Amino acid sequence: MDSESSSVELPSTLAESQVVLKPRKARPFFGRHPWVLDSAIDHVAGQPGNGAVVDLLTDNGKFVARGLYNAHSRIRVRLYSWSASDRLDQEFWRARIERAVEHRRRLGYDAADGAARLVYSEADGLSGLIVDRYGPYLVVQATALAMQLRVDEMLPLLAEASGARGIVVRADRALAKLEGLSVEEERTWGELPDGPAFIQEHGLRYGVELGLGQKTGFYLDQRENRLAAARYARGARVLDVFCYTGGFSLAAAKLGGASEVLGIDASEKAVATARAGAELNSINNVRFEAADGFDALDELVRRRERFDMVILDPPKFTRTRRSLEDALRAYHRINRLGASLLPPGGILVTCSCSGNVSREDFLHMLAGVAQQLGREIQILEQRGAAPDHPTSATCLETEYLKCFICRVL
User: Fold this and answer.
1) What is the pLDDT of residues 220-258, one digit of tens each?
2) Which CATH superfamily is domain 90-197 in?
């Protein structure tokens, strides 16, 4: 940790400072939105350290909620409790973690060799904490400074609730500057495998390098979408661009009965993992190539290739609303190219994990593609993240993944 963060001792579990809102700014927080932006704050009574427990008050001194303070971040306070009697102590965190883990058990996502998101930040009342389970192992990401300061307190609670044998703690470098996080080397707790952790999803086996690559090593949020897309793949020639470690490709080939599948990703390491996955599952009708997704689509269109099904699951194109138009142009380009490779009646599976791109934005983009190509695009299914990634009704920012299964006429 940096010198400022490392010197911070965890404060009292009850607030010793108060954050006072500007007039007429309290309504979203009475409505249980967990992010208090600096622009909503009038002043701070006291001198809270980063990570300190603070109370949020209206301009006339009425208690709103209790949360954790971060002077580095535009999200100045993250809220966790709307009860003045709650202490943000170990028992509070234990109850929140147990509630989150129990939800995944009720989903049936608790198979010993399965994988699931156990804690999804704001959606589980644990803003700034992400926890994914891969068999008996966990990968933890602290995406808020206050949670990073409490990671050592959280690890035994997570192990107790999940029965994990080992845990990897990983930093989200993209958020480090925004949150004032220290970018630490990966840390571990307990026992970990020498190589990949092997998991099973819908009867397919995957090897996951814990904490490496994108997300925490695997796109757990696409779990049900991989199965849904595979239902359209029978007998099809399938193209999967931005395939990462091959989740959609392997599902289409093995579960969907595709005639052949081509997966393309820019990462040589991801492609090597995808090839290993094909071998692990004895799948012979799939091949993977390392290439830039945009360039690969351009080249396939130039060669007048044809596929019966095209899957597009690119990485996040924007993290802010400021670059929304650039992101929508990128989505338009890949979807126009992808749709151009389809014969009439072909299936387009197109995804966006950019939270700042709304469903409406994405639908308008698809309408623009249809208009430019002079073809009809029928939307057969509108899907989102798997239910271990719930959406909080009071923090709609937790809905980020869009997956549209379309028919291009």
Assistant:
1) 999 999 999 999 999 999 999 999 999 999 999 999 999
2) RNA methyltransferase domain (HRMD) like (3.30.750.80)
